[in-house]
Amino acid sequence: MKTCNNLHIGISSVQHFLVDGLCICCMYLLADMYCNGFGAYGNRLSMGCILLYNVLAFMSQPLTGLMADRMQHRHWLLLWSSLFLTLAVGCASLLSMLSLGAMGDAAVEWMLMLVAVLLGAGNSLFHVWGGKQTVVKTGNDIRALGVFVSTGALGLAVGLVFFSWPLLYALLLAIMVLAVIYVRWDNGESMPVTDFTVRSSWFTPVRIWTLVVALMLFVGYRSFAGEVFSKGITKSQTLILTIATVAMLGKMSGGWIARYAGILKSLMVILAGVALCFVLRSDSVAVLLTGIFLMNCTMPVTLYLANLLLPGREGLAFGLLAAALIPGYLLAVYL
Question: Of 106, 96, 124, 176, whose CA–CA distance to 20 is shortest?
Fold first, then answer.
């Protein structure tokens, strides 16, 4: 990978860590405040807003991905994302300064939902921007895809475990600084993405979209299995951070493994390992972590294949796979 591409991957990957960390940090700060202030009602309200944020952040990505594919100056997506996140933090700060008795239940509900919507919109715009930029800057390099998508997992864990107002403001400041640096540095250059679909008459539109849907189903199943994998296990702060670190390393490693071992061969070995770990998962934490590592190795592979199937629509490809995560997650949590 060229030096300028490495610089893009470095900046956008750090931003991914920061954005996901900020969003979960902000939501849990408000959840903690209103659970303590409103009891059971506050708990239901806070959890509902967290669910609203998650659904909006992921399910809206096919739409924001289409925007990314159509925009010539995609840095506006990054700037709008930073603006929405700043407004969300501002609204959350306003809520924290007001006494709970000074606002009616309806006002509290609307303000919390506004924060969730702003965070979800900012998160969605950032992810499709980063996904699209990584593809066009590196020519759909599977190693770069793995690095970019990996850091969000650790950001979520850090934001969840260490949520605090100083951390929230530090994350926001870093996001804004890096956004300005990136916009000023980016020269607009891109690398061509290999398009194998035009070289074979077999890849008709119907077959292409059948394969895309198959990838989405696999991603949804991976999301479901990932939640089921650790369900019922008491997670200490140390274990949460450990699981997130292992997941991040799995996503990073998956791209390198597939690049040098081949996609088909690596997938066969990885999925066999996941199946074995799933059977033995109750035996030890080491087996659990191994399974999580292997499962996350498949993430850059699915994204790489989706980009090949939808050349020129990499934002849509990223958004579709992101949206596929939510049904699997909800099934695992609520079944």
Answer: 124
Which residues touch 140 (CB under 8 Å, ≥6 apart)?
193, 194, 304, 307, 308, 314
DSSP state string for 174-240: HHHHHHHHHHHH------PPP--GGG-TT--HHHHHHHHHHHHHHHHHHHHHHHHHTTT----HHHH
Q: How far is CA 15 from CA 172, 269, 335, in A?
A: 10, 32, 34
pLDDT digits (tens, 9 = 90+) for 74-132: 899 999 999 999 999 999 998 888 755 556 667 777 888 899 999 999 999 999 999 99
Q: Taking the model in full, what pTM does it have?
A: 0.91
Q: Among residues 254, 296, 294, which one has the least CA distance to residue 153?
A: 296
State the average pLDDT over residues 259-288: 87
- Environment class of 185 (CB within 10 Å of its CB; exposed 0-12, middle 13-18, buried 19+): exposed
Q: How far is CA 54 from CA 156, 234, 237, in A?
A: 12, 23, 21
Q: Which two tokens stand for residue 88?
A: 């969300």
Reading the block at residue 74, the tokens are 């995609």
Helices (H), the chain: 3-59, 61-70, 75-97, 105-138, 142-161, 165-185, 205-229, 237-261, 263-280, 285-297, 299-309, 314-334
CA dist 313 and 286 (Å) reads: 39
Percent of the chain residues past pLDDT 70, beyond the cut: 87
